[in-house]
Design brief:
The complex is a heterodimer of chains A (about 110) and B (about 375). Chain A has about 110 residues and is mainly β. The termini of chain A are far apart. Chain B has 16 helices and five strands. In chain B, helix 7 runs antiparallel to helix 12, helix 13 packs antiparallel against helix 14 and helix 13 packs parallel to helix 16. Chain B is elongated and about 105 Å long. Chain B starts with a helix and ends with a strand. Classes of the chains: A mainly beta (about 110), B alpha+beta (about 375). Strand 10 of chain A pairs antiparallel with strand 5 of chain B.
């Protein structure tokens, strides 16, 4: 897994799989557990790739090392992306420093 | 010109050498010359079945023909039929060698038992001995091993799924124990007497056939769903059980009751198979179809009961609607088996048909899970928001 962030976009990569997410389209980033559906996309222990349907949030474009636990969910105008950066704090701090936004809030 | 003695001797030796040097060649030729013992044995049994005792006795060697002439053979077979019932079919044949004799075991199914007809042949492929011996079942009956495997696989797969998706709650697996005996109870105490009553009241054959009136076939199709779906909900009579049910637990409690019933049904059916003589000598791997079918049915049973129990959450009226839904799903599941009994579908298509209810059950299961989620949404931490 590789997550590259610059001022304009977030590039999520794993092998041939590549998602380019324009920073301006990102509305919200949350961290949560997801409810797995039995109609799954490519989901193996320790790996979730491509579009995976979840019962609670619907379809998520996944590029993560976990299918349901502690997923960073990136919400854009059109899609949801699921990632699991090794250092979440650093990833979020980096994102905020480039984009700005609100502080942590638990619901 | 006469051939010389030396030349004749050489030719004779030339012919003899292969036979003397390669005894197995002689054996091969000898065996090829004898008739197929399997065929002789089956012909003999066919003669017995057709009561052609004189023809059967013609297959005996001299000693055997003296010891057991056709009229004695007829008497012996008569005594046998009195004990084990009418001859049904030949199940299999097996050739062995015992004490230098070639022996063919013809396994035959009779109305009340399965027997091996042991036929001993002499060197001329004539029958030199005849015994009727019971089929030995070595150790545990194959169907019980298959039932054990189906139970283990179902509990691991579906029990594991319920345990995992219900956030690792053992109590739901424990609830399966309540409904384990329900299949036996409903089959022996309710379904069987009701079916017998229907058969005698409407004066129809107890064996299903296409000649039966459609309304009777529909009655038979709905007999299992109506009775089984009702008994699976019986634990709801207990107030303690009803108190356990809420938005997040209804699905899992229903699944547990249905799956417990399904596992119990595995053993009820296994017992049913074990008393059929035809299956007496079958090893467990003959029942692979039984194992896979039962595994699927355990899950479907769970979903059917879950439909009714989640309905119960929304009031008694909804429970009734859930029960009707479960009955319909059950009837759809049973159509394949019924069509097989009516000979509309062969075994393969009847098995393939099961994929339809499995697929429907998975859809319903996921729908019920989604419905139950609103009450137990996961905690969410907002790390970034534009608003």
């Amino acid at each position: 897994m590789n997550y590259e962030l610059d001022d304009e976009k977030l590039v999520i990569k794993c092998g041939l799989l590549k998602y380019v997410v324009p920073s301006s389209s990102i509305k919200r980033i949350t961290k949560r557990d997801l409810e797995i559906s039995l109609w799954s996309g490519l989901r193996l222990p320790g790996l979730a790739l491509f579009t995976v349907p979840y019962l609670d949030v619907g379809k998520v474009k996944m590029c993560a090392t976990s299918a349901s636990k502690g997923i960073i969910l990136i919400e854009t105008d059109l899609d949801l992306y699921g990632i699991t950066p090794a250092d979440e704090d650093e990833f979020i701090a980096d994102f905020r420093s480039r984009i700005g936004g609100n502080d942590d809030e638990t619901i | 010109m006469k051939p010389s003695k030396t030349f004749l001797i050489l030719i004779a030796v030339g012919f003899l050498i292969p036979f003397s040097l390669f005894p197995h060649v002689q054996a091969f030729i000898a065996v090829s010359a004898t008739p197929d013992l399997d065929t002789v044995a089956i012909t003999f049994v066919d003669f017995l079945e057709e009561e052609k005792f004189e023809d059967a006795a013609k297959l005996f060697n001299t000693k055997m023909a003296e010891a057991l002439p056709s009229h004695k053979l007829e008497a012996k077979i008569g005594e046998l039929i009195d004990k084990v019932g009418e001859f049904k079919e030949i199940v299999e044949t097996r050739i062995t060698e015992e004490k230098g004799y070639r022996v063919v075991y013809v396994t035959c199914e009779f109305a009340m038992s399965t027997l091996n007809i042991k036929i001993v042949f002499d060197d001329e492929a004539k029958i030199a001995g005849l015994w009727f011996v019971p089929v030995k079942t070595e150790g545990l009956h194959g169907i019980y091993i298959a039932a054990l495997m189906a139970t283990g696989a179902s509990v691991l797969l579906w029990g594991g799924l319920v345990y995992w998706l219900s956030k690792r709650k053992w109590k739901y697996l424990a609830l399966m124990l309540i409904t384990l005996p329900f299949s036996t109870i409903v089959n022996l105490l309710i379904k069987k007497p009701v079916y017998e009553l229907l058969v005698s009241s409407f004066n129809v054959s107890s064996e299903l056939s296409v000649t039966m009136p459609l309304w009777f076939l529909l009655l038979v199709l709905f007999l299992s769903p109506i009775t089984e779906e009702a008994i699976k909900l019986f634990p709801l009579v207990a107030r303690r059980v009803r108190r356990m049910i809420d938005g997040s637990s209804a699905l899992w409690i229903g699944m547990a009751f249905g799956m417990g019933f399904g596992v119990g049904e595995i053993w009820y059916l296994a017992w049913g198979f074990s008393i059929v003589p035809k299956f007496a000598g079958y090893p467990f791997y003959y029942f692979v179809g039984f194992i896979s079918e039962r595994m699927a049915v355990v899950f479907i049973h769970g979903v059917m009961t879950a439909v009714a129990v989640t309905g119960f959450m929304e009031g008694r009226k909804r429970l009734l609607m859930g029960y009707v839904g479960a009955v319909l799903l059950h009837a759809i599941t049973n159509i394949g088996a019924m069509f097989y009994q009516l000979k509309f579908l062969d075994e393969t298509f009847a098995s393939l048909y099961l994929f339809l209810p499995i697929f429907v059950a998975f859809f319903i299961f996921e729908h019920l899970r989604k419905k139950g989620l609103t009450d137990q949404m996961h905690e969410e931490t907002v790390l970034f928001s534009r608003e």
